[in-house]
Write the structure tokens for this entry.
Amino acid sequence: MIASERVALIEAVSAAVIAEAPALTDLDQAIGDGDHGINMKRGFEAVLADLPQHAEKPWPDLLRAIGMVLVMKVGGASGPLFGTLFMELGKALPAEPAAGDLAPALAAAIVAVQARGRSEPGQKTMLDVLVPVQQALAAGQTAPDILQTANAAADATIALKAVRGRASFLGDRSIGHMDPGARSVAVIVGAVVRFLEGQR
Ligand code: ADP
Ligand code: MG
């Protein structure tokens, strides 16, 4: 991928998250404090604002720069976690990633997110989409199948009881609502998949 394509992909991801902000906030209103969409929008607006500065950077540096912006700007519990996700992806990917590099890099990034959040899959968090998406990548699923996996995994958080984050304060009352962070991951995956499909 050339520099202009990398920038266009990040723009597409940012635009998708920003467009979804009201829905993400609605989800967080049900089981959190109603700021997740606002947080993610603020973060990805900052990513867009900073992007010209990083336009020529290869993937590892670009992703690390994005991760740092997200840590600084998203805030809440999710800021350091989404920041870690992007920073660690940057650390794990080679300068010129091939398709096969993504699954192991995402696996490494997930380990870092879990360490940061002291969390694991099954606790109704962003990990409940990240982990199935990583498994789908590792299994060599096609891009549309990976998007299906992401959306189904976000839907599947509805039935889970929150054990981490603010939603865990609700205990059993967190059941019946989709996790906002899980939905954010599905939105990001959707934007990446649609971008790559559009390129072919
Ligand atoms: P806050 O909870 O501080 O208001 P946000 O509303 O921005 O932060 O983000 C909430 C989301 O963060 C949750 O939906 C969940 O997906 C994710 N999250 C929160 N705590 C953790 C954790 N310990 N591990 C993984 N993800 C978490
Ligand atoms: Mg919140």
Q: What stands out?
A: The chain has a mean pLDDT of 97.
